[in-house]
Amino acid sequence: ANCSHCYISYKGNRTPEDLLSVVRNLKKRYSLNINGAEVLTNFDYLKSYKEIGQHFILTNGIVFFKNGNVCNTLKENDISSISLSYHFGIQDNLSPVKIRDLDKIVDIIKSNNFEFRLMTTITSENYKLIPYMCKKTEELGARGIKFTNFMKQGNGKNLDNKNILSDSQINNFFKLLLEERDKYKIEELIIERCGTFGKNTLSSHDNFYCDCITDSIVLTLDNNIYPCVFLAQPGYEIGKFENGKIYIYEN
Q: Exposure string (b/e) for 198-207, b if CB count within 10 Å is 16 or more?
């Protein structure tokens, strides 16, 4: 989908038929989640979502302009929740979906009665906008917002280093995050952040838990096993998927 900040470091695609075979092999022993890149480039992938009972999907939203039947197809495959990329302040620099089109996409999602959340990349250019982001998210009617900091990997290697948050900017991000969480009840707005920001030293009540290694691993299309979706790149392999089984050789 040509998102210039995408952190995914592997190339290629698993065919829909291969994905379906994999999830059928694994679903009896494991709880499965299907991630992207942009899964909705091929609706046949949705068969695997239905197979494992995954009711949410991640998307940059571009498909909602390209295919008028997308909402019906999602419902037919039991998708009820959409996580939409919405990069406040930097959208036009990162995504093929422009900021002027995002609210139109939100209207389509809402009019079809999907629950939705926003996924936002945080850089040195937009981290001060956290209060505005949360307010706008609530106004749009989203269930929540999740922040991920910009990482210089995958497509992001081609972007300027100035996008990377400094330590002081990360601390400021946490300060703003805590302030916004005090404003909203969780029933009104879920405000989440990714583990890649590191430990929140400003609060002992962050309650953030990363389940990588202990409760989750990542299987990529080359059948390698990695400890984390952000470390799914050469050099971080911890195992292999072979003959329908997962083997871990390094933990």
A: eebeeeeeee
Please name the residues in contact with 56: beta carbons below 8 A apart, sequence gap of 6 or more: 79, 80, 81, 82, 83
Q: What does the pLDDT look like over 215-248, one tens digit per residue? A: 889 999 999 999 988 888 889 999 999 998 999 9
Q: Is 145 exposed, middle or buried (0-12, 13-18, 19+ CB in 10 A)?
A: buried
Rounded to an integer, what distance in angstroms lies between the CA atom of residue 48 and that of residue 45?
Answer: 6
Strand boundaries in the chain, DSSP class E = 56-59, 81-85, 115-122, 144-149, 190-193, 218-219, 224-226, 239-242, 245-248
The pTM is what?
A: 0.90
Task: Report the alpha-carbon distance of residue 162 to residue 173 in Å, rounded.
Answer: 16
Instruction: Measure the CA–CA gap between 228 and 201, rounded to whole angstroms.
Output: 22
